[in-house]
Amino acid sequence: MKKTLKHLIGLASASVMLAFTACQSPTESPTDEFSLDYEKYELDNGLEVVLHQDNSDPKVAVAILYHVGSNREKPGRTGFAHFFEHMLFQNSENVGPGNFIKYINELGGTFNGGTSTDQTVYFETVPSDALEKVLWMESDRMGFFINTVSEWGLENEKQVVKNEKRQGVDNRPYGHKSYVQLKNLYPEGHPYSWDVIGSLEDLQNATIADVKEFYSQFYGAGNATLAIAGDIDIAKAKELVNKYFSEIGSGPAVEAMNPMPAVLDETKLFYHEDKFANLPDLEMIYPTVEEYNNDMWALNMLGQLLTDGKKSPLYKVVVEEKKLAPNVYAYNSSGEIAGTFNIGARAFDGIDLNDLRDAIFDGMEKFEKEGFTDEDLARIKVGAETGVYNSVSSVFNKAYQLASYNTFTGDPGYITKNLKKTLNVTREDVMRVYNKYIKNQDYLATSFVPVGQKELVLEGSVQAEVVEEPIVQGAEGNLDQYERNVEFEKTASQIDRAAIPALDGDLSFAPPSITTDELSNGMKVYHIYQDELPMAQFSIRLKGGMFLDNPEKVGVAALLDNMLMEGTANKTPEELEEALGQLGASVYVSSSREYITISGNSLAKNYDEVLTLVKEILLEPRWDEKEFERIKSSAINSIQQSNANPNAIASRVFNEVLYGKDHIFSKPTSGTMESVSSITLEDLKDYYRDNFSPSVASFHFVGAISKDEVMTSLEPLELWIAKDVTFPEYEVKTNTEESRIFFVDYPDAKQSVINIGRIAMEDGNDDYSAASVSNYRLGSGSGSILFKELRLEKGYTYGAYSGYSRTMDGAVFQASSSVRSNVTRESVDLFKDLLDNYSTDFSDEDLEVTKNSILRSNTQSYETYGSLLGILQNISTYELPLDYIEKDETKLKAMDKAEIKQVIDEFMNPDNLVYVVVGDGKTQLQRLNNTGLGKPVVINKDEESLKIDK
Asked: What letter does residue 10 receive in the DSSP assignment?
């Protein structure tokens, strides 16, 4: 369950006929129409219901949004809205303990919840035959939950949420920044003056009485919106909603909250020496307006104009001219009762934040003097059109947005006004809000610097108060002192809520038709026609990636992916960025261990022009020396940040132990400080010359354009001349031949990161599908054994998972978690016990659940353009048959328990699993002796290459 969310999606969906235009002026005639029909009605108990029918895929999404977030909490009980969100996944009277998670997983569905300052939302996406079962479960949580709350459940969930806070705040670089900002921006007692996740002390003090009070006050039907989107029959859906929700009480009226904007009478400066940070960080915050205030849209646009793109004034000054940081950001964030405008950057090593602030002010002065162009406004506005279509590509997005807009505006179709207000923002509006809220106004600034670098903070800064929990062995108490299964009196109901609803109808779906072709130079083409939206999504993938890097200069491929976007032979970086922006398109290049991918997304009508630009990017790189130096500095900056991140350290050490230091995969894809520092622009040119060829490339397309038209569009790429690309060979030399534990000391770590695994397949990945099936019950999601035991039963962690990561020549098995520091040994022991016994304990029921869940979840594989593109990329990258999903399903149906156990024994052999732990050495290292894994091998976290005494 997700920690916080401000907005899950940017723009919501609508019920009326909407007209969007990509023209430069918002007053010109619309050229495209988009419609999304919905029906809204209200039950007698006040529950507002929004229904949207979309029969394109056999799936349905349900979202219930309660109008309560952390802004409704009491001082001394902070974090309670988020904590309560967690509690609701535990139990309810008729569904039963742990069954909500179990049932959704067995249905092949997905689920989650989220809490923000202003709302709590719960959502599920399942095959459409399971709609009634989901409504039964959600209604049970809404009206039949509170009697099931027990001391055991309360104390267990406290540990889970505390783990979440430690993982996301206490054990993360700059994790305390939000706490410092909110505490000092808003007056004491203001509903936004504390983090959504709240205080550990407040959480520990929570009682069952607090839970009951919160539930009775805010979880009535009258304080909620239920949205259902997908493959539904409207009349049938209404019957089910009435059946399960109509008898639930409305609850007390929840008083609306009036705007309470922050007010600063002076500029406030705070600093913190962050033991997890390697680089100085500055953020400046100006109070603005609440959401849907008339000034919000101009403030949103102001943020983009100040820092988005190479033409923006703050980028020009901070990044290009003064070279103080790899990037700079500015954005407006408006909540229900207040808003802020944030400007900041994470500087290069050793940069004085006073210089960075001066540069930001210089950028603002540049903005005031030079302003911005009509083209700049047009670029932002045309991006809004593309964003609307992308935002409604899944039924989940539709359901959430319908619920959210209904809750906060009373109109599920508010997108019509939202987009119109964006398109109607004028130059005068932008300058007005800049002068009103930013220019010469007081602000709050935070300087977060590495320990011992106080001299870099803003002059006049006051040391911030930061609450850090000490590591105390046994401090969490023993859950065994509480009774698990407490008897309770069931709430009377007009229907038989103990009866589990049956699935409704036959679940059937037809996979999309995939067609293939090939250019004369050998580049393969994969195509899916999909016209639900007027969009085009495509990619060009080249095999190679980091695998083709010089081992002494790892990071070339990663630098090259950035370099390709820095202009073309015919366009400067600014001109390229502007050309894409005016088309409302997004194009990006990414690299991985084994491939480089150029990806594009645009309106279908702009596809040809976007592809022309991509052709330039691919075939006519600019090789700008100045941009190369900037990119290289940015890469080193990122590596410095990752070197302070316990998760990144664990991943780096894990890979080097698995592969041996001479294997290319033992290195991070980004490279190391040493390797990247040695890379020159000529190295990138050499990589491009030797390894970019249509012979190792594939083109993938999904969208509202026929294959013939796509093939015609690709004709210019036939000028790309093929060449032979040489792939090196590497020998795997795992640093141990038996199970062994490796320990990295990270002083004062509040969480311990645990990575466990082995190289499971070295000679191809033909067994990848079977291995993934065998892992499903162990660690694939919230219904797995690892999640159940480490989180739900023990409360050691926020999550525990396992799985296989495929490469072209094999796969790696890995299980992992981040656990609270004072149960590191207990977590390792539990992992070991579960892994040692998984094959033996695998049951007929496990096999049945695995088969049913995977087969049903496959119905969700074909919904979004992104998922369809992913299927095409899998086919080309791993040389799979076009119908590999159906073939895998056939194999799955035929598998028996003996075959599953054989795969488990072969690829998860507990006798040669590597254990890597990153945690606090002074409190945890000695406790890891006698685990049955040998004495821990201690590794220095600051070393880029392992030095292991075997």
From this structure: S
514 bridge partner residues: 528
Look at the domain 514-719 and name its fold: Cytochrome Bc1 Complex; Chain A, domain 1 (3.30.830)
225 pairs with which residues across the strands? 48, 65
| Paired residues of 41 in beta bridges | 49
Domain 740-939 sits in CATH at: 3.30.830.10
Q: What is the pLDDT of residues 510-563, one digit of tens each?
A: 788 999 999 999 999 999 999 988 999 999 999 999 999 999 999 999 999 999
- Does 3.40.50.280 match the CATH number of domain 268-391+412-463? no
pLDDT in tens, 283-324: 999 999 999 999 999 999 999 999 999 999 999 999 999 999
Contact 318, 245 (CB under 8 A): no
| 649: its two tokens | 């350290």
Collapsed DSSP state (helix, strand, coil) of residue 112: strand
- CA gap 388, 414 in Å, rounded: 12
Question: Homologous superfamily of 17-173+186-257 in CATH?
Answer: Metalloenzyme, LuxS/M16 peptidase-like (3.30.830.10)
Half-sphere exposure of 85 (CA within 13 A, CB side): 31
Q: How many CB atoms lie within 10 A of CB 594?
A: 22
Tell me the pLDDT tens digit for each residue of 582-606.
999 999 999 999 999 999 999 999 9
Rg (CA), the chain: 28
pLDDT for 25 equals 34
Instruction: Give CA–CA dist 703/386, Å, rounded.
Output: 14
Q: Could you tell me the two tokens for 21? A: 């235009």
Regarding pTM above 0.85, the answer is yes
Q: How many CB atoms lie within 10 A of CB 818?
A: 29
Contact criterion met (CB below 8 Å) for 641 and 278: yes
